Amino acid sequence: MKKLKYEYQYKIIFLLVISFILIAAIYILNMPQKGAVPTAASQLVFEKAHVSELLTENASPDYWTEGLRLGTQEVIVTIDSGEYKGEELHVTNYMNAYANVDLQQGTPIIVRLDLDTQKHPYVVYIANYDRSFVLIALALIFAMLLIFLGGKKGISALTGLIFTVLSIWFLLIPLVQRGVPSILASILIVALTTIVSLFLLNGFSLKTLCATLGCIGGVTIAGIVAYIAGIMTPISGFNMTEAEELILRASDSGLKISGLLVSGILISSLGAVMDIALTITSAVSELHDMNPKATQTELFKASLNIGRDAMGTMANTLILAFAGASLNTLILFRIFDYPYLQIFNSDMITVEIIQGLAGSIGIILTVPFVAALSSVAFEKNK
């Protein structure tokens, strides 16, 4: 009982220290850089609104858009947020196949506002549906299910997930923007999020240490494989679909694009590698508890067998995730009936193949690495 009390206190102290460091780092890294000029996008004003009245519409379903209505609508919208909250404004809504916000009375929307020559607001265009309620509700359902079914472990997992998201958005991206090599920044964030996430789940323990080292090792392996494959192909962050826009921004910032491909693989493979590393370490821990006399070789063989069952599904999950992200491109290749020689050597498909296979290789090699590390650590800890 006393041991559990101390472990709880250590966890609280650790979380407070990490939170303080994280807040300080976020504050420093997200401060405006000296001489930085606000971007044009940051000056745009978007507000919540809803359709208070549908005046006229000239829209009808179109066969080639699978029933989407195309045309125009004249509506009155009421602004629901910001400086002009409560104002009613007239707007023409243009609906096409690619920007299709089909309005009805009461529809919640996001609008872009500007001021005319008389300093009166007007709606430049209707940007999107207001999806905030659905997204927040979905996130709350996810959180409640995780907590309800996972108990304390679920709360720890949710806290770790929030920490990971905050670290990527407020630490990793600002570091890359400020010119820190993206691969180095990604390794640091992977190590940080792994330590915090696994500590939250298992506290200070041998299991946490082995899973953390195994996870960092597995992700690093994936990054090394991707880096070598990128040199040999050759391919880099400049071959990614967003590279052109990033190049325009890199000219007036410290952003380095070349390592972004490897960085993406490090981040995307983190979850799967962490899963399999913790699975194997937990298995070794349970086997050791059930049979404290088990030798290092016995623990290694047993954990390796368990890892073999898990590695297939984890690798499959990772490759399918990358395939799903590029599904539209794959469909277009089939529609245009491109030769396979061109398909498999195109930048887009090569990037996806390297991402999927490098991450999967990292997962596969994590299994024997973590199995060996855990079996040695637990056997020595008799």
Topology of helices and strands:
Blueprint: H1 2-29, E1 45-61, E2 69-79, E3 88-95, E4 108-115, E5 121-129, H2 132-177, H3 182-202, H4 206-232, H5 243-250, H6 260-290, H7 296-325, H8 327-336, H9 340-343, H10 347-380
Helix pairs in contact: 1-2, 2-3, 3-4, 3-6, 4-6, 4-10, 6-7, 6-10, 7-10
Task: Walk me through what this model shows.
By secondary structure, the chain is α+β, with helices and mostly antiparallel strands. The chain contains ten helices and five strands, in the order H-E-E-E-E-E-H-H-H-H-H-H-H-H-H. It has helices spanning 2-29, 132-177, 182-202, 206-232, 243-250, 260-290, 296-325, 327-336, 340-343, 347-380; strands spanning 45-61, 69-79, 88-95, 108-115, 121-129. The protein has a five-stranded antiparallel beta sheet with strand order 3-2-1-4-5, with no helix packed on it. Helix 1 (2-29) crosses helix 2 (132-177), helix 3 packs parallel to helix 6 (260-290) and helix 6 runs parallel beside helix 10 (347-380). It is globular and about 80 Å long.
How would you briefly describe this protein structure?
The chain is α+β, with helices and mostly antiparallel strands. Helices cover 63% and strands 14% of the residues. The two termini are 22 Å apart.
